[in-house]
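Hypothesis: this fold can be encoded by more than one sequence.
Test: take the structure tokens below, design a sequence, compare later.
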């Protein structure tokens, strides 16, 4: 039985990856950080919280000595480092925290593997945010980086550290440059889930107006379940490498909004008064979307679209879920949640 260590099991990817690895017969050590109240709703939703092969361990990404103890205790064959301060806009307000957790945190693991002369294979959760200001599209493993946020810069540090430890010490250290991936387990602070949750509330008759920032941003959105399988495949490869996981399609935030309303059988019409764009529901005639400048970022990543051919050729990985299916899945899950809450 292989042993895996996942950091960030309370997050979207950590939960799906734990489910994936348990299904593949792994014993899984999974970390969460101490907080005043437990945050296990995702692993509960996936019905794995009480799985005997899932061992939950408290750990903070910024604490090197506890990282060493964690490595000693779990003695993992594979480490999937997913924990991070993941919110791009928050990283502008908290650049030091972001650098420590998202940038230096992974170095604690790489140094720990080196220090303990461990043979564990290491996966680093790198991000398409590292591409930042568009240099060329679609983005591949060789496209130049130009990060546009403290989050992107921190991820780039960790990405190059991963490559440096691979080349310097022969550590099996893989880096997955993942484009945005979403699911019903996505946090509501990210735009897709914020939208699907808002749409579900409006479909339920709430007077909510969805307040959003930049509607023109283009993102390559895939389904998180597909992407965690890609992470697993990267650590089964013959040698450590860097791979892009994406769908090779890009969609604006505005179109994601329209798709989400359509998934709830609501047609929206976009209009503007001066610079203020808004959307109206054709059914109710009411405003359902407005722009709120507080969600604009000091610097924006305008367009992401990834070329996943290397992962397809070398790992046999490809995305399985189209954006309209993903959108429907998320809207339906949010509608069901609201039904359950109202039933109480
Ligand atoms: P989430 O925001 O859903 O989860 C982040 C996880 O990190 C949570 O478990 C969180 O704990 C944990 N965490 C944050 N700070 C610390 C800390 N100081 N010590 C220990 N744990 C901490 O992110 P995702 O699951 O979406 O993303 C997983 C990884 O993949 C991240 O590294 C992200 O940057 C990267 N990534 C994600 C993409 C995406 O589209 N989802 C795309 C590309 C890369 P808590 O629950 O307590 O907050
Ligand atoms: P992103 O995801 O920054 O790409 O990072 P997010 O969903 O936060 O933003 C996507 C785009 O939508 C625009 N936007 C808004 N974003 C949020 N959060 N809230 C809004 O109200 C809103 N309105 C418009 C943003 O400006 C942006 O252009 C995600 C995270 O998962 C990272 O951890 C990961 O590395 C990258 O994806 C790839």
């Amino acid at each position: 039985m292989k042993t895996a260590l996942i950091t960030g099991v309370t997050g979207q990817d950590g939960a799906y990856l734990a489910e994936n690895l348990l299904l593949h017969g792994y014993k899984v050590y999974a970390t969460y950080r101490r907080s005043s109240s437990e945050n296990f709703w995702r692993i509960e939703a996936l019905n794995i919280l009480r799985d005997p092969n899932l061992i939950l361990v408290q750990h903070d990404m910024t604490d090197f000595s506890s990282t060493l103890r964690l490595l000693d205790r779990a003695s993992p064959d594979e480490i999937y480092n997913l924990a991070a301060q993941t919110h791009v806009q928050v990283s502008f307000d908290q650049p030091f925290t972001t650098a420590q957790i998202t940038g230096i945190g992974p170095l604690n693991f790489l140094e720990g593997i080196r220090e303990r002369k461990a043979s564990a294979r290491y996966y680093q959760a790198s991000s398409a945010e590292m591409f930042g200001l568009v240099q060329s599209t679609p983005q591949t493993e060789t496209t130049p980086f130009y990060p546009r946020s403290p989050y992107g810069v921190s991820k780039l540090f960790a990405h190059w550290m991963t490559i440096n430890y691979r080349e310097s010490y022969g550590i099996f250290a893989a880096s997955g440059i993942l484009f945005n991936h979403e699911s019903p387990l996505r946090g509501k602070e990210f735009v897709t889930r914020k939208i699907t949750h808002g749409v579900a509330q409006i479909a339920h008759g709430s007077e909510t107006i969805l307040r959003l920032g930049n509607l023109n941003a283009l993102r390559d959105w895939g389904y998180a379940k597909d992407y965690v399988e890609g992470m697993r495949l990267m650590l089964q490869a013959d040698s450590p490498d860097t791979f892009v996981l994406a769908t090779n399609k890009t969609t604006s935030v505005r179109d994601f909004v329209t798709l989400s309303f359509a998934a709830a059988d609501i047609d929206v019409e976009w209009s503007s008064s001066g610079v203020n764009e808004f959307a109206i529901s054709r059914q109710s005639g009411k405003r359902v979307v407005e722009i709120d400048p507080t969600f604009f970022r000091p610097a924006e990543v305008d367009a992401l679209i990834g070329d996943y051919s290397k992962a397809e050729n070398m790992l046999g990985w490809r995305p399985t879920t189209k954006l309209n299916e993903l959108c429907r899945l998320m809207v339906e899950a949010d509608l069901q949640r609201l039904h359950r809450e109202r039933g109480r």
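Residues 3-183+220-249+303-320 form a domain with the Rossmann fold fold (CATH 3.40.50.720). The chain has eleven helices and 15 strands.
Hypothesis status: open.
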